[in-house]
Amino acid sequence: MPTRAELRDHLVRTRIAGDVATSRENNLDHYRSLANRDPYHLFGLTLSDGWSYRDVLALMAKSAGVVADPEHRSGQDTIDPDRTIDAIEAMGERIGQVLAGGRARLMFATGHPTGLLAIHLPLARLAVQHGATLLTPAEGWSYVGHGFGRRRRIRYFGGVAMLDDRGGFVHTHDADPMRAMIAELDGVRPDLVVADHGWAGAAGEAGLPTVGFADSNDPALFVGEAEGKIAVTVPLDDNVLPRYYDPLTAYLVSRVTRAL
After folding, report:
1. Cystine design at 134: which of 69, 81, 159, 234 (Cβ 3.0–4.6 Å)?
2. Exposed / middle / buried, residue 143 (Cβ in 10 Å: 0-12, 13-18, 19+)
3. Pairing assessment for the beta strands 232-235 and 18-19 based on DSSP bridges
């Protein structure tokens, strides 16, 4: 397990945090889209009034560490690695507390299988090792989602829900798959949902205890956290090489076990 200082250096070196690959232009475009209540950027959340573009930018500067100056409109943007680590510690404590209660029920889901699956899978295994049940509702449920015109379905790997498109796991912001999972829970409420993108947003909107990961250009979960619908949101680049997440995952696992 890395120390906090070692993890901080690693996050900056691999651009999980620090000077990230997501451009300032892309970040600001997504903040405007969220302020305009674009469904694609809401991740299944409904927001209270008052979240203007400037409000979203100010929140992202506070929660993720992007540049606060609204006049900085192009070029490099940032994620504060210390905010990332603080959120990892908070997430680890929350997961550990749930597992410590015994016989916990958890759901895992990711809309970024090429990146964040590398974090979800070890967490799911850890949960099982500590007596948790991984809920896997709506496996095989399918729908024609937004913008791609063909049917996709929920498939689980290692207890983690993802979208399958003709044999491949795919990126998605959609909230509909998590809504389908919740509809099939049949009264069995998970003690915690660990997710990202629309999977996390829909869970939080439904009132399920939820922790999640989000990139600097995905402000919805941070707004959801500010409104009390998401318990913890970890800011990070969500699509670096999967092996780059290993030290972060080891640090997170250590925080979970410390809280048990």
Report:
1. 159
2. middle
3. unpaired
Cβ atoms of residues 163 and 152 within 8 Å: yes
Give the span between the Cα atoms of 231 and 210, in whole angstroms: 6
Contact 178, 44 (CB under 8 A): yes
Please count the other Cβ atoms lying within 10 Å of the Cβ belonging to residue 170. 16
Note down pLDDT in tens along the chain; length 260 residues: 999 999 999 999 999 999 999 999 999 999 999 999 999 999 999 999 889 999 999 999 999 999 999 999 999 999 999 999 999 999 999 999 999 999 999 999 999 999 999 999 999 999 999 999 999 999 999 999 776 678 999 999 999 999 999 889 999 999 999 999 999 998 899 999 999 999 999 999 999 999 999 999 999 999 999 999 999 999 999 999 999 999 999 999 999 999 99
Contacts of 12 (CB under 8 A, 6+ apart): 18, 19, 81
- DSSP string across 105-149: EEEEE-S-TTTTHHHHHHHHHHHHHTTPEEP-TTTT-EEE-SSS-
Q: How far apart are CA 163 and CA 168, in angstroms?
A: 8
What are the structural domain ranges in the chain?
1-260
Residue 223: its H or E element: helix 220-226
**Radius of gyration over every alpha carbon of the chain, rounded to an integer in angstroms:** 17
